[in-house]
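Class, discuss our next protein.
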Amino acid sequence: MSEHTATARKRRKEARPQELVAAALDLFVEKGFAATRLDEVAARAGVSKGTLYLYYDSKEALFLAVIREGILPVVEEGRRLLESHLDDPVGGLRAYIHGWWSMIGDTPYGGIPKLMMSEAQNFPDVADYYLKEVIQPGRAILLEIVERGIQQGVFRPVDPKLITHIVMAPMLHLALWRNSFAVCCQVPDMNADDYLNEYIQLLVHGLLVEVKESSA
């Protein structure tokens, strides 16, 4: 075997897990978790089903790999973002929203929230993993941004835990819209930048402490 052939095969072998994860993500978003078959994933990735089983022994294991490789790094980036905005809760909030959209909502991973909402009841173990590894850590970062804003006197004394749900809802709506009506029903798509900018304006003005004008 030539050195070139050996190198090419090694690269191909190393690339297979990433190719399988990418194919699984596409099919999970397109068809849903229940309807996706492992042989379809293998075919989409250009490998045999037997090759797929060398890396992942079940559809659940493949889904967990999709989350680990694509979404968990975004959670880590969120933690780094938090550290860079310790004294600027408004800037942290803006960066969190834009970062979530650019790294998840506006990527193929933006279809995962729709997938989880529709199939969580049927696959509780998968849903539990997603809740513990993605939703809860993401909300913890957002919670700390809001709590810091309150402690610094920038945000009103709101219920931080409730606010994390309220902050995420419009972002999830945009991602759900992109992966449902905007795909199948020939409806005008919402411009994501305009949507997020208007949303941030409403959110920030709703959270900021009112500055009372001094009487003359």
